[in-house]
Design goal:
Chain lengths: ~325, ~625
Amino acid sequence: METKKYSAQDFKSDQAVRWCPGCGDYAILNSIQKAMAELGVSPDKTAVISGIGCSSRFPYYVNTYGMHTVHGRAAAIATGVKTANPDLTVWQITGDGDCLAIGGNHFIHALRRNIDINIVLFNNEIYGLTKGQYSPTSRRGFISKSSPYGTVEDPFRPAELTFGARGNFFARALDVDLKTTEEVLIQAARHKGTSVVEALVNCVIFNDGTHKAISDKDVRADRTIILKHGEPMIYGKNHDKGLIIDGFNLKSVKIGENGITEKDILIHDAKCQDCTLHFKLGTMSGDLPVAFGVIRDVDAPTYEEAVKEQISEVQAKHPTRKLEDFLRTLETWEIK
Amino acid sequence: MADTAKITSLEKVVVRFSGDSGDGMQLTGSLFSNLSAISGNEISTFPDYPAEIRAPHGTLGGVSGYQVHVGSKKIYTPGDLADILIAMNPAALKVNKKHIKSNAIIIIDEDSFDESGYSKAGYKTDNPIEELDLRSAQIISAPISTMVKASLADSEMDLKSILRCKNMFSLGLLCWLFNIPVDNAMHLLKNKFKKRPAILAANLKVLVDGFNYGSNTHASVSTYRVDAIDKPKGTYTDVKGNQATAWGLIAASEKSGLPLFLGSYPITPATEILQELSARKDLGVKTVQAEDEIAGVCTAIGASFAGNLAATSTSGPGLALKSEAINLAIMAELPLVIIDVMRGGPSTGLPTKTEQTDLIQALYGRSGESPCVVVAASTPANCFDYAFIASKLAVEHMTPAILLTDAFLANGSSAWRIPNMDEYPAIEPPFVNESMQSYWKPYFRNPENGSRYWAIPGTKGFAHRVGGLEKDSKTGAISTDPNNHQLMVNLRQAKIDAIADEIPELEVQGNPDSDLLVVGWGGTFGHLYSAVEELNAEGKKVALAHFNYINPLPKNTAEVLTKYKKIVVCELNNGQFAGYLRAKVDGIVPLKYNKIEGQPFMVQELIDHFKTLLDA
């Protein structure tokens, strides 16, 4: 095993980062580099695969093996990398358009297979690189260059889609919350199987302030909750709000009011096989706080290991077999 | 079983098996071809099956056929028209009227020739022989269903299962007709049904019944024998094009030391490649049945980046979906083998039928200037060689290579000598080595062939990024510099062009000293060669130049083509290769002979056409 300690600097490439000043992607880049250092996997054994879009320029900025690929196809390419060489740590960098519009099919099938890749989904709810069209995560009625009268379609909610595709790991991070971002990235990378980290990022040019309602400093504590496995779901500026189950729904309550005590507050169980509550937590909005942190983290067999195992099992029966040996097991006849 | 009937010796014979798609005619045909091969004959086979899995019983749409050409001399095609037809029902007879000679022997199951059978097959009268004008044919009419029912009356099988054994009766009858020892057939069946003793017993019984029926009733005025051919010594097996393709990839994997990876999505007529490789876990092959065609090629590109010999298999519509990703592999200069088993198009077209209509798509069906290697197999067995060669060129030159086969090659079969892998060349992946570390960049090239070097993830000190954006030729960083783009376009082209130095020169077959040069490529080889051979045997001078290397073309292509007064390019499309040759060789104006019916050429139509060209 490698014992070398890495710093974030070891994962910085010599290329100048070319995102717009103030872009939320910078924060995620820094967090991933820090997380990579913390994980301690050598840059030589790390592959970063991206699709197309602003965030997908990412591989050029990290000093690992990397490939900037085809719009929407990063999940399929990352699946190939990991299946071919399960010893590599594989990251997939993607955006809301890349992952959920053109790449939607590959996204759900990567999750279904549970290939061990770390998907970081940069969600700014806009197409930035093509200069401002609505995306599959833009809210209904959103006005953009391609929806001048507002969109007439509902957005995908990445958590919902992840669970619908039988995903076993989902976390949410916010560009301006570096600490939580780094923590969830580390947990995502350590998770065996497909992990999805939805990183809410701001596009300063085409969709500035899209996450403002939850990300602004003065409202963030009351409108968001950071979930941690095994800890009570408490939030708020004064740490006095919490979540309880009310019928089939989640409900926000104030500790100390109506006889509610800390003991009544739900304890977060990210490891629960049943994703019903994770689904509820992952889609909270409106009166309920938007959840950050690791919402679901469940172990399940991974695709690449199963592929490898099946081959080992069959090969154990024919340990030295080569093509010629196999061909001679067919129906044959001799010409002498 | 004393048999006093006269035995006629044949140089070659074409047998066509035909029935409902559930009648087991494909199995019967392949068993018969194996039996002939085991007897030392040359064989070539071709199935002709409907796109529907099980069309309504007894209808024209449900007729499934399998043609075998058996020879005592070298044969190159499954034959034009059949000498012998096995027709299990009236629909099969009607559909195959156009596939048989007028004096053919026709074996029918008379039990299925009843009113219901005639009506399902759309006959106007109750005399199909008259109605189809088959009076010159020799009809062997046997109550096959009745006899099979009687034979298996004591078995515990239900009627449906009993009738499923009918095909073995016809196989037994053919064994008698061709003086093939019935023991050989019994041996094959024992292997085939090893794990199902009840079914084996029933099939063996019916097989022998069929043989005895022929022998006892002297069902035909003559029986036949096709003598063994003198062939190179060795162990032979029967191989279909798709299997050969799959095994050729495995051979390349062993020779290169690279693990084999296939990313693919099922598509007719290429699916068998995915199936065959999925079954070869004993040889360490990794396959991903992807969510779509695009993911098929993309998983392969990922595996290639990670250092595997990576391939994707598809047919025309799938190749169209893969084109953007192939361009990524061209731009990132990663090895990738793309197999296109061509079928009738455009769109869904004729999925089970054969064509050569993807040539231009393979050459040019991508955005930008995006040259890649294109090779084409020309026989079912040499799909093995060209899959091997495509892999070798892809790996050693760091480029995608497209292998074109077609439904005719993919499903057709021939006898194949199991190769000794020592006879195949080494494949040397151009890996980076430690000494390069100080100066290496992703697009640093081998000056000898223009290929870049391969640094696979996990290699210490070579972490780097590639991608679809244009890169600086020296630093490997993203570049939009106009001069650099021009240079990189030129370098990518030069890399492919340089491959012409490594591939064999074009050979002229037939009589090179001729005024007429027949030109073909890929799967039409057998038909073109047979036609040219026959004309030369008749004393007419005809030459043949058949291409397996399409891009780049063999170096002497212009030299060969400009020698002949008259060139006719024959292909199963509207002249794609002819147009390509005109673009590549200045000054030639070839004639064209084209057919797009979803069927291979007929040798006879080629002979007739070449004769008119010779006379003109």
